[in-house]
Amino acid sequence: MARADDAMMVTDRLMPSFFAPRPRLQGSRPLSAGQGGLFLLRNSTQVGVARLIGLLPEKTSWLRMVRDGLEPPTPPAEIPIMDLQAMAASRWQGVAQAVKQGRKLLLVIGEECGERAGRDRLPPELLTLTQQLHCPIQFIQGIEDPQGAPHFWLERPWQPEESLKEHPQGWHSNLLHRLRSSFVSASLELGPQHIWQAALGSLKHHAPNPISDSTGLVRTPKELLLQSRVLAHLLSQQTEPGESVGLLLPSSVGGMMLFLGLIVEGRIPALLNFSAGAHGMRSACRTASVGRVITSRRFIERAGLQDAVKHIQRDRPVLYLEDLKQRLGLGSKLAGVGKFLKQDRLGGGLPPTGFSADDPAVTLFTSGSEGQAKGVVLSHRNLLANIHQIRSAVTLHRHDRYLNTLPMFHAFGLTVGTLVPLIEGFSLHQHPSPLTHHTICHLGRSWRPTIMAGTDTFLHNYARSAEEGDFSTIRFLFAGAEPLRPRTTELWREKFGVPVYQGYGTTECAPALSCNTPGANKPESVGRLFGGIESRLIPVEGLEEGGRLQVKGPNVMRGYLMPDTPGHPARCQFPRSADGEVGWYDTGDIVTLDEAGFIIIDGRAKRFAKIGGEMVSLALVERLAEQLWPDHQHAAVRLPSPSKGERIWLYSSHSQAHKSDLISAANARGKSTLLVPERILFIDALPLLGNGKTDHQALQRLAEKALNPPSTS
């Protein structure tokens, strides 16, 4: 591909960089004439401020914070300025008077609002100022569109309720959430509309950090996209436009190329969970109306999936990556390179005519931990929104190195483990299985990652298998998909000095909804909701605190494909809430929210037992056992009870677990004895799904069998 790279360098030099488009103001209308108010602009240069004030209504002044001993920035002469002495006791009086007189003020929130504090803390001056002013606030974001033209995005004016300002933590959380939401809105409206377009944009803005996998394959982002384009041309001859195409591959460079090659040609990848077994994969193909499946002979042989593939082939053809490569002739290569140079590099990778950001991008499948797996259809907008939401909350650097051990069929493995590194331009290593603990520990030492993520089960096993120094370069370690045990956090801190940040998400939300970060970490919580996400708690009978969490936002799925009503991803259905509203997704989780916006998960709604009229969380039962026996696994199930309605049994890998110890632990911690299970059953190891979650259905079957043993007569 050397000649192709040379050609691309020439086209880069010929790009019309001398053309400087005029900035535009987009979004909502600015505050009306005669109305005082505050504009908040995040991280902008003096040139940016000058351009913006020229677009805003008259009488808008730059509100400049002046600190003793520091020379304030000198703006162009035409910009009206109002200086605010940061340490003066009467600093707010002049500002308040100016606003009352109908003057509009622009405050630029600089680096102190985020980069150094993990994007979790706002400047104290901003908090105090906004608490003192009784006026509308309008957030502004400066952003470039995919062609490099500068724009400013205005959110709708917000008139805060005075009651919000009475609680400093709640006010800070509310203001920060709105600031992040404005960034997400601006990025979605003015930024790339297609995953391929976003990936191309990374070539212009980021260094060519390598993308590698455990087969030894290494590609620069440019090589990856070019070869994806070549592969796309070949795939267009093997598949139909808009076809749902199954992908049966591990996390790898080749898997990324196939995924990107399909979406750039308007096909919809359906990422099959190869840990679901032959029946599960065949059911998923039927649910998503998959026309054909693409896989690799080498992968099938190593994973022992030959019988599963034969099962799939009963309904649809299976294409092998090795055969596709043999069909890749000179004509296909030239055609792919030509499209890459003409459409992508010179044309900016504009989506095809008639494309909408809400078109299906991918079909994933739920874990099936509580029933038959459903198809979850995510649009380009859903995936891009989640990427922007993560960017607005987590400080990512171009020098970061992400070690992804989660499969791409896992929503976190796709969005966070694959698309975020690709689009944000940092190094990525794809490893095919989270189960190879010793290999992953070796990668921690040899590849030196700075970011990793996984389930509690996987992270606990890595820490136990690793030697001192294996993961010493990690700066962000995220846990999700199941509750994070204190013992896992302790292991990572003791062995490597690495904190574990618990997050929360669902496949239906593309997937991330919240996470703890260095600047805002409440270990018993799963962090605060990302920007652009609205939430509400639906009361649950029998619970005095908290409620059933429902969310709404641009990352929430396009809809479901149901196993009993299969169909094409474009015809998916979004479930209506109990009150008939569309757009609110019911997570099925019972949560409480504290004053600062942190989410504490009490358990799944389906994982509550009603004992004598009291709602008891199975997750809290498990948590009590984990506190008493932290080195063992525990899982609770509910069963019918003729006297109390329901009963709780606990499965534990601790052979000496006794009910009397749990009673003592509950009393010592001031917990209800309802958290003590009726019976404790020993199990060598909890059954797990392919994504690392506990297989609750398997445990439920075991418990029901133990409760009602088969007759021997």
Automatic annotation (TrEMBL):
Residue runs in coiled coils: none
UniProt entry tagged with the keyword Disulfide bond: no
Domain AMP-dependent synthetase/ligase: 222-561
Enzyme class: transferase
EC numbers on record: 2.3.1.40
Keywords, sorted A to Z: Acyltransferase, Ligase, Transferase
GO MF, one example: medium-chain fatty acid-CoA ligase activity
GO biological process, one term: fatty acid metabolic process
Protein name: Putative AMP-dependent synthetase and ligase
Species whose genome carries this gene: Magnetococcus massalia (strain MO-1)
